[in-house]
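Milestone M4 deliverable, item 7.
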Amino acid sequence: MITISLCMIVKNEEDTIERCLESLKDLVDEIIIVDTGSNDKTKELVEKFTSKIYDFQWIDDFSAARNFSFSKATQDYILWLDADDVLLPEDVESFKLLKENLDPSVDSVTMKYNLGVDKYGNVSLSYRRNRLVKRTNNFKWIGFVHEYLSVYGNIINSEISVTHKKIKYTPKRNLEIYQNKLKKRAEFTPRDTLYYGNELYDHQMFEEAIKYYNEFLDSKQGWSEDNIRVCGKLHEYYQSINKEEEARKYSFKSFEYDTPRAEACCNLGFSFLKENKFNNAAFWYEMATKLEKPKDSWGFFNESCWTWLPHLQLCVCYDRLGNRKLAYEHNEIASQFVPNDERILYNKKYFKSLGFN
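Output delivered:
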């Protein structure tokens, strides 16, 4: 059985760190915590789990801190998490099996990263990350913000999920790091350009965000999944200011990078629905229901677009088109995923009044 070092970087995480470590303390053989300047009870709480606590002077570089944490590991494999991540009980059990049975020739194990859940407890947004890596390969983190672990070799995809449970939000931290780097004339990679665009967008600095998003797309150096996500963001923005044709342009552009995604089809459907073009909207929502999610993709997925949402919207479209039977059928399909959704329950009463059981 392999041994595992857990490596984390933290700062002022007293609200979450104990929850995180408690969820996986029995899975790892060593816990290494690198503190980048806490002035709360973080270290005191961490001491309940490990004595391997190291200070690291913060230099506006997440990769530097993570690489330092990795340098302190001594076990076969390194697991990394953030303080507001947890492993749920079912994932703890799956992780135990992985640890007992992992082939030592494996260089990295990816795990799903669940970033959000809907009000019914269903995962609403997820993607994959290299999460457990062989220590002797000396894999390095790259990027001062929104860093990534550069991994190669024998990589396997597991069904284990890490669940993100953010409590606090540091609104301007990353934005300010990027702005300081620009002041120092740091050279941005295409990835830096993308994530700076994301920070600008999240802070509603839309004109600047669009500039960097288009610069990223025009570079033609982006990962296809990132290109698709940027197109989705641009569609979202232009739709919010009622520029439907411009919004649709970016959803169609996303098809250049890979097979159509349900998210883009739902965006197109909604765009036409807003214009009361019900046949057009139904076409795109139907398309969303027929797509197969790319297997083992590392992209971001809005699970509702791949399950219940297009069916709920098809219920609306076909009802407006006068095909009540088909509208009823799609509402029933949607109800299989989110049976207690208030819109679906409202529709059920509506169809019952029309004689549908």
